[in-house]
Amino acid sequence: MRPDPSGPVPVPVSEITVIVPTFDAEATLGEQLDALAGQTFAGPWEVVVVDNGSTDRSAEIARSYADRLDLRVLRAAERRGAAHARNAGVRAARAPKVAFVDADDVVAPDWLAAIVRALDEHDAVASRFDAVALNSEEQRQRRSLAQDTGLGRHNYAAFLPHAGGSGLAVRTAVHEALGGFDEDMFRLQDTDYSWRLQLAGYDLHFEPSAVLHVRFRSSDAATRRQAFEYGRYNGRLYVRYRHHGMARAPILNDLVYLGRQTLRLLGTRDRVRRAKRLSSIANRLGIVLGRVEATWRRP
User: Fold this and answer.
1) Which CATH number is associated with domain 16-213?
2) Domain boundaries, the chain
3) Residue 48 contacts residue 92 (beta carbons within 8 Å)
4) pLDDT tens-digit series, residues 142-170
5) What is the mean pLDDT of residues 226-246?
6) Can you say how many angstroms the Cα of residue 195 is from the centroid of all Cα atoms in its chain?
């Protein structure tokens, strides 16, 4: 039996609030807002763009869409990170359902209609990711895509499925019952949120008709930095959840993996394969660091 969410219930001015956390996104934000303005959903809904301390024209671009969308721009720069921005957006929401999309992705025309239908039946809903529309073939070869055919699976140690934060939707009362996103998680706060949601007894549904076009990093260096940071927070998640049924992953396995990947890298001449192996090494180094950090900081 799932728990009954408690706490304040927002006045249902809209059926759903779409929250767009934004930080220095002037290059891509307009494309996402254009896509939101083109949604086929016929019910009442609103957009809250949460500026997380941008120094570019992101807030100005967002305000320019006020004649095309029921849109508000909220500044939440007290703390950096998507978790803080998303939580601030929910507090400002005027709907019993909320959905999150990133400023560098693009929703398909029927995305919102599919999300609302699915939220009528489920506590939380994950979108289907598409990498073709916004990325070159070489970019797609450099990294794999999770959540294209179902919920993501933890690639380090077997545990519960999870959803990316962009394209994730949830009933507002459920979000409040969970206490929102963990603002100490600068990365992978969506994985942590997904796991806490399921451990609390709520259901997380993958909706294939809710399509979100995702944008990969444009350079190998940026992809490696992202892989390292994801790994670092994966390591922290392992320490947090290993006593909740997550499969055991001895740190010796990480060292063996790093050694093998380094040897393979030395013999790799193909540029795309070399980039993928470098990202894989960066990710596993991040995991080791994250595990050490989380273990050291535990009370």
Assistant:
1) 3.90.550.10
2) 16-213, 220-294
3) yes
4) 777 789 999 998 878 889 999 999 999 99
5) 87
6) 13
